[in-house]
Each structure stands twice: as structure tokens, then as C-alpha cells.
Amino acid sequence: MKTIATYLPFIISLITGWSIVRILLQRSEPHGFSTQFFLGGGLGLGINASLCFASFILFGQFVPWFAATLNLIIFITTITMTILLNCKKKITFLPPAGERGNTAILLIALLTASLPLWILGHFYLHGGWDAWSVWNFKSRMLFLGGENWQRVFLPELWRSSPHYPLLLPLTNVWGWIFLKDADPIIPVLTSYLYTTLTIGLLTSILLRFTKNWWVLIVAGLFFSLPYYLKNSYSQYCDILLAFHLLATLFCLMSAARNGSRGYAILSGIFIGFVSFTKSEGMLGAVLLAGLGIFFLLTQKQDFIIRKNLILAFLAGLLLGGIPTALFQLLYSPGNQTFINGLTSLDKPSTLLRAQIIGAFYLTQFINANWNGLLFLLVLGIVLAGRNAYRRDIMIFPLFFLTYAGAVTFYYFLNTYFEITWWLSVTADRIIYAMIPSVICWEILSMQEGSLRTDKGSIAARKTTDARS
Amino acid sequence: MNLLSEQFNRLRSLRLNIYLFGLSIIILLNVFVLKEEFRRIYSFKKIMKHQIIGHKFAGLDEFTKEINVISYFTDQDLKTNAAGKDLAQAQLLLTPTIVDADRLDHEYVLLVCKNEINALRIMKQLNLIPLRRNQHGIILARRQS
User: Fold this and answer.
1) Count of C-beta atoms within a 10 Å radius of residue B97
2) What residues have CB less than 8 Å from A129, skipping those under 6 apart?
3) How do strand B69-74 and strand B98-100 relate by DSSP bridges?
4) d(Cα B121, Cα B125) in Å, to the nearest integer?
5) Is residue A342 scored above 80 in pLDDT?
6) Cβ neighbours of residue A273 closer than 8 Å, sequence gap 6 or more
7) In chain A, which residues have their Cβ closer than 8 Å to the Cβ of B98?
8) Closest Cα to residue A42, out of A231, A274, A218, A291?
């Protein structure tokens, strides 16, 4: 019975998210089951966590029966809609016959490759340092704290970053919803699931566009890189950021390529989740929102299609941004660890600080944690050449450049922390969250021919749909 | 023209192959490091099934669960890894009680001292009476009214 209660929330999330993605993309993309499955997994987890947040807002504490009822209503509604659409033959409930084999092979390959993470995750049951002092502490406080849960925002708890948003803690709370206690296995499963969904999403995108089974090597890379595994089983929030960033960029690209309003809505929702992960996510979300509009606006489609895409994107943004907006308005105590180095006389931003930041970035290339991966990423940009800056995938480099610039400037500006220590505990995690998206961009850049084929088959139908 | 296009596509494919080959080399390097990590874990597994944290604070949550906030005193420097880790683990295990390491004026105080004489001294200084002491020497004390 406990096993069912442990896994049930995650199963509900996967099915709910998959159903919503399937419904949203029914017109634009009847195929691409595996990509939709992984996208849906993260979407479902985000939605269920956000609905749990509603309980805190409405009742001032976590009310499990209310959160469970709300989530089950969404689950039943989306499942019913999917079944009805399936009956009308608008979408298929299971992968189409031609895709079943490939989907099964991909899933089996991923589950096999993820075994090291499963074993390590179950050994390091309580995760790493920041899981104790930030993420799991907040999760437990939300679940066990009753009406006192808002103590997580007390300034005295500055070591626990009280201003950080709550997507990961709420996902863990959702995981505990059918259990009587805060079982440590739930954060383990959350981390495992998000890591597998991230790598699964990446691999399925690459497989779909390259039609090259060798791209499964990418999954092997992530599930074997010890530092990547460590960051994942440590139960930190960075893997949530990695997933939602990749999902946002892919959905924006697909919205532009296929003229798909469904993808535009999804990209907006995912940006909302990016902002609800942590402060770095908030910064990324602001950039993505602005760049997303610019990116969709500068595509070559008819003005009416672009207008529809932007409206759909804004609708998704509005929907996905609700939890962050409420969090910021009602609860966030503001950043307790910020000193503006440009105006502070006690702790000014100095040239030395800028030099340390630059030097630290360079040392990352020889950092043994990455086993030479960062060199390969640079090589990938060289190999991709001009293709990396094509209009239809321009959102990737635009985001990477602006985000790297913004993060670097923030390191320079905020002088609260001693910079060497701060960089050593945060910079590599930002790199960790970006790597799946960077690899996705590089490999897509090397496959222009295949992308055109995919675009050709889908975009023509899409344009017709959008016009109709 | 077709031949040129075919050559161009081959070149693209070559680029991807070089890239994937590079990733494969990294996977090979990873395997050696990962093997060492698993060897380490299996040696740990002979004595414990999984990671155990905060055993120092075991059992104290029974007595703190009704308390909103407790002060945290340690005779170690909280900037050091060991002391910082103790504080983080205490906070996690004693949730939903808040552990305040910045103030000593709450009604209840948790004393985490390497040297028990330091704990006795601070109890006298803050007018505290001990309520519980576990086998690891961690003391939960209460301010005398």
C-alpha cells in the first residue's frame, strides 16, 4: 500500500501532463510521442506542485484533501478529454503504430542508462548540503509546519535562502500527499524523475531531428558523468531549472518552425515554471519572456500567424507565471543576501572582483568535474559554424549569451558574498543546468538537412491550420 | 548540383560524428571515475544501507516538535564545514521547529558543544536548565523564569 502511495502522485503527474500536451498539440503535431511524453512529465509535475500551492494560499496551510481533490479533478478532466478526442480520432491515446517500437527502445535505453543514478540516489537518501539547509528543509516545513509554514520566510533563516521560490519543495509536498510522513524517498524520486525527463526530452528531440540512433550517446554521457550524477542525486533544484529551460527553448523553436499555437502556449507555461525554481531561474525567465516575443516576431511567417503565436505565448506566460506572481506578492521576504556593489562604500564592486570572475570561468575548462566536456561544447560551436545562428534556432544562442552576461553582471554587482566562495558553490550549478540546452542547440545546428525535412512536412500543414 | 548537396550533407554528418565521438571519449573517462564511486559506496554499504545524517540529533525531535523556535549554540566556528553541516542537519531533522543560530534569547536552547564544559558555562551564563541530553552530548536546555 505504501508503495502505491509513494509512486501514485508521480504517475498522476506523468499522465496529466502528457494528456495536456497531447490536447494542446493535437492539431499541430499528431506524431512525436516520446518528446510529448517527456515534455508532459515536467509539465504535469509543475502543474501538480502549483495546485498544491493553492492550498497554502487559500487555507493558510497545507490541506492534503483539498490539494488531492484539486489535482484529481484536473487529472480526470484531462484524461476524459483525451479519451473523447481519441474516440473522435483527433489524437491517439498510445503512440501511433509506426512510433511504438522507437518509443519503447528509447524508454528501455533511458531506464537502463539511468541505473547508476537510481542506485546512487537511493544510497544518498538525504541528498547534499543544500538539500538539508534549503530544499528538503523547506519541503518538510511546508508539509509538517501546519499554519506555521510561513516561518520558512523568516529573515533569521538567511542560510536557507528564504527568498527562493518553491517549485521543488511543492513538488516534494505533492509527492508526500498520500503518505502520512515526510518520507525521504520522495525527494530521491523527484530528482530521479526530473533528471530522467530532462535527458529523455533531450534525447528524444535529437533522435527526432537527426534520425540518428547514435545520439543515444548523449544519454550515456549524462548518466555516466559523476559530477552530473552528483548534482542530480544531491536533490537540488538545478535539475528542475535544466528541464524547464530545455523545454522552453524547444517549445519556442517548435512554435516558430511549425507555426504552432500549442507549442507557444507551452513555452509560456514553462517560462512560468522556470521563474518558480530559484533566483537564477527568475532572471532566466525575464530574459526568456522578452527574447521569446522578439524571436516569434522576427520569424518569416505571415503577420497573422506571428500575431497568433505571440498571443498564445503571452497567454501561456500569464498562466505559468501565476504561482511566481503570487509568491512574490504574498510571501517573498525579498533577497536577504544582496548588497549593491556599485553604490556600497563598505563592499564595492572592484576590478579585482571582475578579474576573479573571469579567471574562475577559465578554470572551469580544466575542472576535473567536467572531464573535458566544456572543451567539447566549445568544439561543438566551432563545428556547427554559421548554422548555429539560423533564424529558426536563434532563440538558443540569444538566450545563452544574454543569460551568461546577466549572471556574470550579477556576480559582479552583488557583493554580499565573498566572490571566490560564491562562484565555487553556484557557478558550476548554473553550467549544469545549461548543458542539456547547449548540447541540444549544437546538435540541431549540425543537422540542418533533417530539420528542413521535419519542418517541411509539418509546417505546411500548420500554416494551413493557423490560417483556418 | 545533387552531388554537391550530397557532399555537403555528408560533411554535416561528419561534424555530428566527430562530436558524438568526442562524447564517447568522455563517457569512457567517466566510467573509470564512476567505477571508483561505486566501489566506495559498496564498501559503505557493508556497514550501512544508505547515507545517515544528523545522527547526533537523533531523538530530540520528540521534545522539540511543539516548540516554534529554539536557539542554537555551538562552541565551533559556524563558518567551518563541520559546524555548518551540523547546523544544516539539525535544522532539517528538527523541522518544523526553527533553529536560530543568530540569537540566544529564545526560551529553548540547543547546545552542540565539542567540549561539555563550554555547554555548562553557557548554561550558567544564560540561566538555563538542561531538559534532555542525548548519547552524543547534545543538550536541550530551557531558560529559567
Assistant:
1) 26
2) A234, B84, B85, B88
3) parallel
4) 6
5) yes
6) A42, A46, A167, A240, A244, A320
7) 151, 154, 156-157
8) A274
Distance CA A24, CA A120 (A): 36
With a CB cutoff of 8 Å and minimum separation 6, the contacts of A20 are: A40, A43, A44, A47, A78
- Sequence letter at residue A292: G
d(CA B100, CA A341): 28
Most B CBs within 10 Å, among A132, A134, A367, A440, to test the B interface: A132
Q: What confidence category does residue A461 fall into, taking pLDDT thresholds of 50, 70 and 90?
A: very low
Half-sphere exposure of A336 (CA within 13 A, CB side): 15
pTM of the model: 0.92
- Kindly list the residues from chain A whose CB atom is less than 8 angstroms away from the CB atom of residue B84: 129
Residue pair B25/A375 in contact by the 8 Å Cβ criterion: no
Confidence tier at B59 by pLDDT (50, 70, 90): confident
> Does residue B14 register a pLDDT over 90?
no
Count Cα neighbours of B89 within 13 Å in the Cβ-side half-sphere: 19
| Sign of the C-alpha dihedral computed for residues A286, A150, A175 and A63 taken in this order | negative
The secondary structure of A349-376 as a DSSP string is --HHHHHHHHHHHHHHHT-GGGTTHHHH
